[in-house]
Amino acid sequence: MAYTRTERALDELRPMEAKVGVIKNARGSAMFKIGKTIAYAAVYGPREMHPKFMQNVERGTLRCNYNMMAFSGSGNRVRPGPSRRSKEIGLVTENALAPVIDLTEFPKTVVDVYIELLQTDAGTRCAGICAASMALADAGFKMKDLVCAVSCGVVGETPVVDLDYSEEAYEGGAVDIPIAMIPRTGEITLMQLDGVLSKEQLHKAMELAKVGCKKIYEVQKEALRAKFRED
């Protein structure tokens, strides 16, 4: 079944906003908004890792905590507290960010990133990764680059980028593919796929995601530049 977007082009992202330094007591923090999805990230540490048997003697450990607030938006009400899904997304976020951050100066420590979704309309893990990446940069850690993330996929039989909730729930069927990328190298640090689609559809969706990530990258960089201009 063919699908046609009415409010934006198939390759068009929803409106974006980004800002860093939004949480005063955190070492680094950021807000990233895309459409109606709003993610905040706060960085704390490095601090000594407990229990000690989990310490890495060669480098610090990145630990990401993901949480959707109970009344954050689209879909069913989220049950408060840790869930299997939130733990899985926290681990996915750690793996997406690990290739760019250098924590060799902080052995036996942990750097905690807390990600809160205040409002949601799909693309939550991608928005969280974008916010966390900016927050780590705001905290001053050595990083090879930022990480950008966006969902792409196929709605009906049509490849699209940046799916919203109505597209994820499309009656004709939808496949959502969260992708995270290091813009300078094009390296993919996250790719998840739940569903069935053709090789051609996958390639087209990924090309849309790569272009979308580059647009997000510009928004992230401008948010960091804006803080330094204020300082």
In words, what does this structure look like?
With 231 residues, this protein is an alpha+beta fold. It has one domain (16-230): 2-Layer Sandwich (Ribosomal Protein S5, domain 2), CATH 3.30.230.70. It contains four helices and eleven strands, in the order ββββαββαβββαββα. The protein has helices spanning 84-97, 124-138, 165-168, 199-230; strands at residues 16-20, 28-34, 37-48, 61-68, 101-102, 109-119, 142-143, 148-155, 158-161, 174-182, 187-191. The strands form three sheets. It has a five-stranded mixed sheet. Strands 9-8-10-11 form a four-stranded antiparallel sheet, sandwiched between helices. The longest helix has 32 residues, at 199-230. The mean pLDDT is 93.
Please specify the SSE layout and strand pairing.
Elements: E1 16-20, E2 28-34, E3 37-48, E4 61-68, H1 84-97, E5 101-102, E6 109-119, H2 124-138, E7 142-143, E8 148-155, E9 158-161, H3 165-168, E10 174-182, E11 187-191, H4 199-230
Parallel strand pairs: 4-6
Antiparallel strand pairs: 1-2, 2-3, 3-6, 5-7, 8-9, 8-10, 10-11
Helix pairs in contact: 1-2, 2-4
Overall morphology: globular
- The tally of strands reads 11
Helix % is 25-40%
Mean pLDDT: 93
Pick out the low-confidence regions. Answer: none
The main sheet orders its strands as: 1-2-3-6-4
CATH topology label: Ribosomal Protein S5, domain 2
What's the alpha carbon Rg, rounded to whole Å?
A: 18 Å
Query: What amount of the residues lies in strands?
Result: 25-35%
Strand pairing plus helix content: what structural class?
alpha+beta
Task: Report the biggest beta sheet as strand number plus sense, adding barrel if it closes.
Answer: 5 strands, mixed
> How would you spell out the order of helices and strands?
EEEEHEEHEEEHEEH
Q: End-to-end distance, in Å?
A: 52 Å
SS element count, helices: 4
Number of domains: 1
CATH architecture descriptor text: 2-Layer Sandwich
What's the name of the CATH homologous superfamily? Answer: GHMP Kinase, N-terminal domain
CATH class: Alpha Beta
